[in-house]
Every structure is written in structure tokens, then in C-alpha cells.
Amino acid sequence: MTGTLYRLSAFTRDPRGGNPAGVWLGETLPDPGTMRRIAAEVGYSETAFLAPRHGETRQVRYYSPEAEVSFCGHATVAAGVLLGRLEGAGTYRLVTSVGEVPVTVEQDGDDWRASLVSVAPAVRSAAPELVEAALASLGWQAHELDPALPPAQAYAGAWHLVLAVASKSRLDELHYDFPALKALMQREHLTTLQLVWRESASRFHARDPFPVGGVVEDPATGAAAAALGGYLRAAGSIDTPTRLTILQGEAMGRPSRLEVTVPSSGGIVVTGTAVDLEPTSDDAPRSAPLG
Length: 291
Hints:
By secondary structure, the protein is of the alpha+beta class. Helices cover about 25% and strands about 40% of the residues. It contains 6 helices and 17 strands. The protein has an 8-stranded mixed barrel. Helix 2 crosses helix 6 (about 220-235) and helix 3 packs antiparallel against helix 5. The protein starts with a strand and ends in a 15-residue tail after the last strand.
């Protein structure tokens, strides 16, 4: 199976920031075992595999170092920027395992920006037992949560548990029980925890543990950003249409900026830039898998 592997960092203009992603382009997708192997060798939180090599419509699959992921926002933005550079501005339709995701790409000065439109978001309540177990794994207390943004499970291609804290200092302190949280998330079919602090009506800070992918934390999580937008709309916590800014990766030393547009209905739009990474560059640290 032949293809070309690219390495980019999404949601940043600086290779030292953002979330690294692999983007593989080929005429046909490799078999699942090969995609898992390539993703593990790349070592980033996700690698996106796209086929065919050319055209407005591509099939895409996402793999972490340990497993297939239903949808990955940062790898989609990275892929969109790459397609724009290789084939020009426009809208590319990516057929994912959860539905079609249009990605509109445009040049922004010397940079490229990609805007994905998520599949229809969904929100469901988080059982008290789930919240209690998640808090225990995080070492957090229920009274530290923001009562205006109650816990919930949110979806925009993948399921996330949204936990909003009342202070940034609580968000900054993240030292969790990796095996316990991984087991809980696997049991509940969660991709990440979307841990957030609301700085203002339109500005959020986020951290996303990703133990089910073999990664301690994601520096930028586009799928969770879309899910958060859907959650806020469903909860009536924002007036729509509106635009949100999510800052992520700060505590990891890989600052990321995700722009989220929440329309009155339909999919959530997540926009970001991406830059190239060199395979051996010290500016492109891998999100090392944990055993």
C-alpha cells in the first residue's frame, strides 16, 4: 500500500504550538491493521488517512496510537489545510465513519485556514455515578464545578464528558489516575473529557484527557470543541448564532486556538490554521503512548 505521510500541527501558526497530526494521502485506504501500525509509528494523538489522493470527496479514517477514533477535529483541520495547499481553496467533503464532514479551506495571507462543519450534535445527561467516578479519577470535588454549566455528555462525531469548573486554578491542576479514567471512558464509550473554564461569555479554556487513545492529554481537540458548542446551544447557555474562542494546550506548553461558530441549528463549525512539522524536529514532540 503506497501513500504519502505528512505531519502538521493544527490550531496554531507556530510549530511549537497546536496539536500534531499525521495526514496520510493515498489512492485507497490501507487495511485497519496497517493504519493502526502507521498511527503508532507516527506517535501523535491521531493520524488521518484519506483516499483517493485527488478530488473534492475523500474517504477518511482516524487512528490514535491504540485504536480507531470515530472523528478527530484537529486532524481534519490539518488535512483541510494540506488539501488547500496541494489543490487549492474550496470545499472538500470528507466521508467519515459517522457521516460527511464538509471542510472549507481558504488562504489567509501566508497561511491557510480550514473550517469543518460537524455532523449533527447531540447532548445527553451525565449520570451521577459517571460524574462521581470521573471526579474521583481526576482528584476533583463536586463543589469545584461551575453550577451554571452542569455536567453532560456531548457529541459532534464522538462522545465527550463535559465538566466545567468554577476557577481556572482548578483547571490548571490536572494530575489524574490514567488507568482508572481510561477504564471508565472505555466503559462509557467516551473519547475525551472536555474540561473547561468559562472566562467570559465567548471565551473558554479547555483541557482534554485522552487515555483511551494512549495519550495523557490533547493540546487541541476539535471534536470536543464542536461538542461543547452543541452542548452550550442545547443548554441555552449562549445566544445563537455566535462565535466562541477556545484556548487549549496552554498548560502543556503547546498553546492552541480554536474558533467555534455555533449557528441556531445544524452542525457546529470549527476553524483553525495548521503548520508543517518536520519528522525529526524538536518543535514537534510526540504525544507519547502510554502502556
